[in-house]
Design a protein that fits this description.
It contains seven helices and ten strands. By secondary structure, the protein is an alpha/beta fold. It has one domain: TIM Barrel (Alpha-Beta Barrel). Helix 1 runs parallel beside helix 2. The mean pLDDT is 92. The chain binds zinc ion (ZN).
């Protein structure tokens, strides 16, 4: 199957241990909206490494957190990405709230989606795609309706692994079904026999052993349009590019 590559722009502050989760976070987050975001030096440096790697490289969709446009230093790097023909921009929420970990909130989620969509799409222009990834992978069936109503065409939040069923209210297939019923295309993440293979699993032992091999086996052919081609989502984080003293790169097949 074809691979669709995407990268999430999470900063250190967006870890659920810091913010966005009702039980796991050390900082409060009363609403979806936060103000005056400034990127960490770690994220800025990792983004510079990503820019070097992706220039003249494979087609990648960047899932952006809307509040990050508050930060001039980060936006200046996004400008460089936006100028590249192989980069598309999609939506990773406004302030990285883990929506399905909180009580169902259709009104709040809808308001956030519209604001994030408007801010990111105006910024990205023709590189914008109405595609969504739920912060922290926290997705639930009730989120499908608001996504469709806000004009989103694709969701890529489902991690079809037995390790994360808890986040999906016990059954990720229900989420997938709701997305499809609301007219959204669902593009689940690549998994392996032992569990997740995307995001943190790329560097988390023992998942990393299997994940790196699975990525190489699934990235012979890469698409930039997961809405027309049946494809599997391979995603990582911008911050990953700071690993190995800035020499880290996604474990893709040699031929692309
Ligand atoms: Zn994230």
């Amino acid at each position: 199957m074809t691979a669709w590559l995407s990268v999430d722009t999470d900063d250190e502050i967006h870890l659920p241990s810091k913010r966005g989760h009702p039980h796991r976070s050390s900082m409060s987050m009363p609403t979806w909206h936060t103000e005056n975001y400034r990127a960490s030096t770690r994220l800025l440096n990792a983004t510079d490494r990503f820019i070097e790697w992706v220039r003249d490289g494979p087609k990648v969709t960047v899932f952006l957190i809307a509040e990050q446009l508050d930060c001039p230093e980060f936006t200046q790097r996004l400008d460089q990405l936006l100028a590249m023909p192989n980069i598309l921009i999609a939506c990773h929420g406004w302030g990285h709230r883990c929506w399905s970990a909180w009580p169902e909130d259709v009104a709040g989620f809808s308001e956030m989606l519209a604001a994030a969509r408007d801010r990111i799409s105006v910024y990205a222009g023709s590189s914008w795609r109405p595609w969504f990834r739920a912060p922290g992978g926290y997705v639930a069936s009730w989120m499908a309706g608001p996504l469709a109503a806000a004009g989103f065409r694709l969701d890529s939040s489902v991690n079809p692994s037995r390790w994360v069923n808890r986040k999906m209210g016990g059954d990720w297939s229900q989420v997938q079904q709701s997305m499809e019923q609301c007219g959204l295309i669902e593009r689940p993440w690549l998994t392996t026999g032992i569990g997740p293979a995307c995001g943190p699993a790329l560097s988390l032992f023992p998942f990393s052993l299997f994940a790196n091999r699975a990525w190489r086996n699934h990235s012979d052919s890469i698409t930039s349009d997961p809405t027309t081609e049946d494809s599997i989502a391979l995603y990582w984080h911008l911050l990953d590019h700071g690993r190995k003293s800035g020499r880290w790169e996604p474990p893709l097949a040699r031929i692309q």
